Amino acid sequence: MKLIVGLGNPGQEYDGTRHNVGFALLDHLAEEFGINWQDKNKFKAHTAEVGFGGQKVILAKPTSYYNLSGETVRTLIHFYTINSNDVLIIHDELALPFGTLRTRVGGSDAGNNGIKNITAHIGQGYARIRVGTANASSNSRKAEVFVLEKFTKSEAKQLNDLAEQVVRFVEDFIHDDKEFAHTSISL
Fold this sequence. Notes:
alpha/beta, Rossmann fold, 5 helices, globular, 187 residues, 8-stranded mixed sheet
């Protein structure tokens, strides 16, 4: 069994923001798999389940705020008895330029409070897809302001191309492809 979690903030005011790219990409994934979201208050998440690659896959979007996602992840892995190495987190990465995707297992949180919180709740060993969100104006703004800004129109159009690549990365993760942990692409 695999757990795939997209990070973001609940509420329509955060739709289309850099910090919610994990939610947006997970929505694309759910659409690709033809599954619908269900509100699961006991997990503090919207979840969807699919059989893929001969195993059950749980998709989850925490309904707590981004920086408190660890509790949801911990609750899900305990309920479903999932090992942390079968968990994949999709999140924004301010340290990478927009259009860059990097996969990794473990590693530094790079100042990302959502990742810090997940690590505090479940430890290291989980996989990540880091989605670059930085652009030319990111250095002139405070990080906590920039991540809550909406993508530019041209960036929003490019998200579809990123989403297609994320689907491929997720499939590699589900199939335990050894190359998953060392992949980087830029559009």
